Amino acid sequence: MTAMGDLKRRRIDELAARAGQVPEGEGGLSLTRSAFRRLRRNPVAITGAVIVVVFLLVAAFAPLLAPKDPLTQYLLSEIRPGSIPGSREGFPLGVDNLGRDLLSRLIVGSRQSLLIGVVSTLLGAAVGMALGVLAGAFGGWVDSVVMRFVDILLSLPSLLMAISISVLLGQNQWALMIAIAVTQVPVFARLLRGSMLAQRGSDYALAARALGIRRSRIVFGHVLPNSLSPVIVQATLSLATAIIEAAALSFLGLGDPDLARPEWGAMLSNAQAFLSIRPELAIYPALCIIVVALGFTLLGESLREALDPKFRR
Amino acid sequence: MSEPREHGATAASSLSKPAPTPVAPTLEEPAASGARGPLGDTLLEVRGLQKHFPLTQGIVFKRTIGHVRAVDGVDLTLRRGETVGLVGESGCGKSTVSKLIVALERPTAGSILYKGKDVARMGGRALKEYRREVQIIFQDPYASLNPRMTVGDIVAEGWAVHDDVAPKKGRLKRTQELLDRVGLNPDYVNRYPHQFSGGQRQRIGIARALALQPEVIVCDEPVSALDVSVQAQVVNLLEDLQDEFGLSYLFIAHDLSVVRHISDRVAVMYLGSIVEEGTDEQVYASPSHPYTQALLSSVPLHEPHLRGQKDRILLQGDVPSPADPPSGCRFRTRCWKAQDVCATEAPALVDRGQGHPSACHFAEARMVVPVDAE
């Protein structure tokens, strides 16, 4: 026994000596920090992040960046039936059917599109997560009731539901955001509930129960923090779908009625009458929508990879 | 690894004596070692323990279409300073027994008496005190530690509830002492679990259980997920801790040699109930239940010259479903001794002249594995 004790002590000393050589930063690398480190090394993540940041900056400084006023009908006099002026000096992308500068409208339009995407996703995620926590933490009949409600939401086609809600709430941008948020709620609720249920039965949650830890502390201290990764990923991916849905609703004429705020979806909708004359009017806003959605999707997918324990070295 | 151990006064089960005041093990003043000697009073007594999980059908209107009899009549006794091994194949209900004992599940029937008090009837303060005294170590060291907490927080977490165990001020020092005691560098308190190997993580799990100064630790397959070399280290650590703090272990495993090494008494489980029980000498050298004999005959021998002497018993068929166990004796569907009486009458776990309890109508001691140098 003493020989073994000596051995053990010597081993601890060795370990201690080696631990002294470990660089400072290695002391404790939390999961979040190591995930962020992996994210930084991933070129796909960088591409997505750059796209997202560029569009966010453009949206933030739109009034400064736009070369012309997006509402002034500069070239109205040159518009004839069957001909809209194309690219020229001062109007790099040409003008729309009312003679307004297309580039400026795209730049200012990014504000509205991104705002709708971000606000509706935040709203949807907040409500969805609240429902998910409720179902995941309590289980039993609470879980059944909440999940049946969520199933009802999920059973309606999301676009159809968004259309009915925005019709119900009247035509304004808040109605649009709420309509899109409602379609996001069930996704977040199901996701968080599922991952919480999985974590609730995990050994460390059982160990905490065996220690006598209170249920609220187990839910908020152990289960919830470990259930959030899929929700964060989903939020990033939802931003892309929210922007697309906002565009779709605007395209259908259910968007923001305020003409003073240009918006990509409304621009797209406007352009369909002139598709044969000037397809660029549709192509440019569509391209913006696609690229932003792609940026968020790339970021979300690489976030999923970074947060996935299977990819952890 | 293999030191001869004496097993004093283990066969007779005595529940009569009242418990003397327990000596709470602390890091500073280890309880008198030599707990290997005569064993103490009964700490934990499990009688007729059952746990049936309902099988339901339907979404809104659930109806029960049957029960999985995960645990169906288990009797166990654990005395102070003793290690009881519980062996059995996967799915026989070992882990459910461990969860029942640490009150993570409620038993369907039967009782778990701790120092004479029924655990199922405990509430509030009594349960809190029970949880402090009876701790658990889990099988999978990768799942049993919260990946988002530092090692220091994991070990110290129990003190958030049981704040009388460690004074608030010296908690960091206590945590470091505990890490040191389980063979980890005390400077690792700020590291996260994913920075450790499986064996090191299991040591963290042991430190977490030890932090509450328990009397009983339920070890739910604590070494099954580890490499063989690391298994030995962890088993030795558990033995050292037992000597130092006078702990009692319920050691659950499917590895017969590990159980034999650490246990004073062994219980063999099959399909939710105990089929044979005795000191490790009795169970390993003269197994009397056919299932125990088959189980032992499957253990690989490390001594080459002994290999020819072993008669390998091959069982036919699979383990029956615990949702629909066979009538009478659970083992009769795979037993070569089975007769008509086995289908009608469940054999009781009693001594039929072989020296220790065995749940077989035709129990007969038989040496399966040549015992040599152990």
Automatic annotation (TrEMBL), chain A:
Pfam family, one: BPD_transp_1
Keyword presence, Transmembrane: yes
Subcellular location: Cell membrane
Segments crossing the lipid bilayer: 43-66, 114-142, 149-168, 174-192, 282-303
Keywords: Cell membrane, Membrane, Transmembrane, Transmembrane helix, Transport
InterPro entries reported in the protein's UniProt record: BP-dependent_transpt_permease, MetI-like, MetI-like_sf, OppC_N
Bilayer disposition of the protein: Multi-pass membrane protein
Xref: CDD domains: TM_PBP2
Keyword Transmembrane included in the entry's annotation: yes
Signal sequence annotation: none
BP term (GO), one: transmembrane transport
Positions of the ABC transmembrane type-1 domain: 110-300
GO cellular component: plasma membrane
Entry's family note: Belongs to the binding-protein-dependent transport system permease family.
Designated name of the protein: Peptide/nickel transport system permease protein
Species for this entry: Geodermatophilus saharensis
UniProtKB/TrEMBL annotation, chain B:
Pfam family, one: ABC_tran
Origin superkingdom: Bacteria
Keyword Nucleotide-binding: yes
Xref: PROSITE patterns: ABC_TRANSPORTER_1, ABC_TRANSPORTER_2
Keywords, in A-Z order: ATP-binding, Nucleotide-binding, Transport
GO MF terms, alphabetically ordered: ATP binding; ATP hydrolysis activity
GO BP term, example: peptide transport
Region (Disordered): 1-39
UniProt entry tagged with the keyword RNA-binding: no
Family annotation (SMART domains): AAA
UniProt protein name: Oligopeptide transport system ATP-binding protein
Entry's family note: Belongs to the ABC transporter superfamily.
Domain ABC transporter: 55-296
